[in-house]
Amino acid sequence: MLKRKLTILLFFICFANNFANSTDNIVFIKAEFLNKNTVRIPFKLIDHLIIVEANVLNQIGNFIIDTGSETLILNKIHFPSKYNHNVKNNETTGILSYIDNPIEKRLKSFNLQHFILKNKNSDIIDLSHIEKSKKMKLLGIIGYSILKDYEIFIDLYLNQITLTKVDKYGNRLDPKVHVEKIVDSLNFKLKKHTIVINGTINNQKLKLGLDTAAEFNQINKSVNKKTLKHFVPKKRINLSGASDKRIEVIVGDLYRLKLSETIYLGPMKTMLTNLTRMYEVFGTQLDGVLGYEFFKYKRTIINYRKEKLYFINYPIIRK
Amino acid sequence: MKKIITHNILLFLLLVTTQTFAQNEKVKGYRIEGDEIVFSFDKRDYTKVSKNNYWSKSDFEDIDIHNVVVSGEFNNWSLHKWKMIKINENIYELRKKINDFNDEFLWEFKFVINNSYWAEPSKEDFNTNEATKNGHQLDVYNLNFTTAYVDKNGNATFKIKGYKNAQKVIISGTFSRWNEDYFNMLKTEDGWELTLQLRPGEYEYKFIVDGEWIIDAENPLMNKNEFDGFNSVIRIGKLVTLKLNNNLNASKVILTGSFNNWNENNCKMIKTENGWEYTFKLSSGKHHYKFIVDDNWIVDPNNPIKEYDYEGNINSVYIVK
Lengths: 319, 321
Prior knowledge:
The complex is a heterodimer. Chain A has 2 domains: 17-165, Cathepsin D, subunit A, domain 1; 183-312, Acid Proteases (Cathepsin D, subunit A, domain 1), CATH 2.40.70. Helix content of chain A is 10%, strand content 45%. Chain A has helices at 2-6, 128-134, 144-147, 225-228, 278-282, 292-297, and strands spanning 11-14, 26-28, 32-33, 38-42, 44-46, 49-56, 59-65, 72-75, 103-112, 115-125, 138-142, 150-155, 160-165, 182-187, 189-191, 194-201, 204-210, 217-220, 231-240, 246-254, 257-258, 264-265, 268-273, 288-290, 299-303, 308-312. In chain A, the strands form 4 sheets. In chain A, strands 1, 2, 5, 6, 7, 8, 9, 10 and 11 form a 9-stranded mixed sheet that branches. In chain A, strands 15-16-17-24-18-23-20-19 form an 8-stranded mixed sheet. In chain A, strand 9 (103-112) and strand 10 form a beta hairpin. The radius of gyration of chain A is 19 Å and the shape is globular. In chain A, 45% of the residues are buried. Chain B has 3 domains: 2-147, Sandwich (Immunoglobulin-like), CATH 2.60.40; 150-236, Sandwich (Immunoglobulin-like); 238-320, Immunoglobulin-like (Sandwich). Chain B has 1 helix and 30 strands. Chain B has one helix at 2-16, and strands at 30-33, 36-42, 48-51, 57-59, 68-72, 82-83, 85-86, 91-97, 106-113, 117-120, 128-133, 136-146, 149-150, 156-161, 169-173, 186-187, 191-197, 201-209, 212-214, 222-224, 230-236, 238-245, 253-257, 267-268, 270-271, 275-282, 285-293, 296-298, 306-308, 314-320. In chain B, a hairpin with a 5-residue loop joins strand 20 (222-224) and strand 21. Classes of the chains: A mainly beta, B mainly beta. The interface between A and B is large, with 42 and 37 residues.
C-alpha cells in the first residue's frame, strides 16, 4: 500500500504564456507525497549536480535544483517557443549560466497539490551544452522563484530533497517533517535571490553565496592574500559554462573556513576563479560560492523566509 | 511492488548469467572495498623501476624499499604526499574514500619507491596506458583506475547476442561516464559479454558495436535520452545485514519494510549471540523498515536515520548507494 502511494505523483506546475491557453504539468517521478504540505523528491547526482526526474509536456527528463538561479528555466531544445518577440534581453542568473537572450514565459500557476502560486516567470533558454557535457536529457532548471516558498532540506546522505510549505514567517505548516534532530543553525542574508553567508578564513571576512548547482566551490582570485594562504592548488582543469565558453581554472583544497563559533569546514575542493562577473550572476558582490562540497559536509535545510540554514548530522556508520 | 519484483528479476538474470567465458583481465594496483579504494603495492608485481626525471630503467631487485607512495593525477604526481602503510614484507596499502574521485571516470597513477623511483608497470597489465607529459609520449606506462571495473566475479554481467562478425563491441554507460573505448566486451559462443563490478545504484548503458550505439534488446528497463532515443537501465543492489542487539528473550523478531510491502512474516530474523540479524539483497535507493519483536513494532535503536510516513508514524531508513 505504502509502495503504491510512493509512486503517486505529486507536483503540478501549470504554466501558459500570454498567448497560449493550454495548461501544462510538471510531475515529479518517484516522489513521496507525505501530506498536503510536505513532499520528498529523490535525486541523483550527475557529476556534482543535483538532478530530479520529472515529466513535463509528455516528456520525461531531468531538472537541476539550483538555488543560484533566479527563475525556473526550461530548455529551449525541448520546449521551443513559438513567439520570438518574447525574447528576454537581460541575462539569466546562476553559476551555471551566462545565458544570452532568454525567452520569458509566464507561469500561470505553480501547483503543489493545494497551493497555487500565481504569476511565476520562467525563462526558455538553450541548455543543450549542459546536456552535451553531462550526457543527459535536461528539461530545465528549478530555481529560487519556485523554491522560495518552501523550506528545503537538501540531503546528500539520503539523496533526496524535502520541500515543506511554510507560512509568511517561515514556520512549517507541517509539524512532522524531520524526525532527526536539528543540531545547529546559521543566519544568512537574502540578497536578490542569493543566499549570502558570512564566513572567515584566517580572520579575513568573506561573503559567500550558497548555490546547490555549483559543482565546485569557488573563491575569487582577488580576495585577501591571507585568505589564499589556506587555498592549496592541485591542478588546472577546463570548464564549460552554460554558454558553452571554455575557461581554464585552478582547482585545489580550501581549508579552515569558519562560518560560526561552531561551524568549521574543510578541506573543500574549490576553484580559484576570476569572478568579475559575480555581481551579474548573483545580483550581489561575493568573494566566493559554496556548492556541492558544502552540502557533502552538511545535510542542510534552507529557510528563505527566516533567512536561516539548519543542519542535521550525518550518521556515524558502524562497521 | 510489481516494479520491485521486475527489478529483482532483472538483477537476478544479470547476476545469474553464466560466466563460462572467464576474463583473464585483472586490475593491478588497487581494489575497491565498500566506500573505499585500496591502493595496493605488491613488490612481486614489478620488475623495473625508473628514477624520477631520468630515462634509464633499472632492475627492481637492486632497490631497498624504505617507503612507498601513491602518486597520480589526483595529487599532482606528488612523490611524497600519499604515503602507504606497510602491511607485510611485500605489500603496502593506502585507503581513500571513493567519493573523493567521482569527478573523473579514469585516473592515472603509479607507485613511487623511496620518494624517487617509479615502479614501472608492464604494458601487458590490463589497466595501463602510455604515459604522456605536456602532450608528449613518455616511454613508460601508467596504471589507471576506475570506480567501475572488469571482474569476472563482478555484480553486473552485460550480454549482447549475435554480431559475430563485429570487430569491436564496447559497453558504455553512466558507470564509465559514457567512455567509448574502455570496456571492451569479450566474444562468446553466441555474442559478446563482459562482467563488471559496479557500486550499488542505477545506471544507464548502451552497447557500441563497431561504432553503432545499440540498446540492450533483452532489457525492458529504459530511460529516454537527450537524442530522443533510449538508454537501457540497470539497477545494482547489495547484500545487507540488518541487526537488532539484545532482545534475547524475545521468541521471534521479524524484519519488515517498504522492500517487502511491510510483510509481517517473510523476514524472520536469526538469533545470534548478541541479538538478531537478517541478511538479504536490497535494491539501490531508500528503504523504510522496522523490527517486530514479539508483535511489538519498534524502530532500529542503533540507526539515527528515521523518517515520518504518511500517517505520522516513524520508520527507520536504510539507503543503498
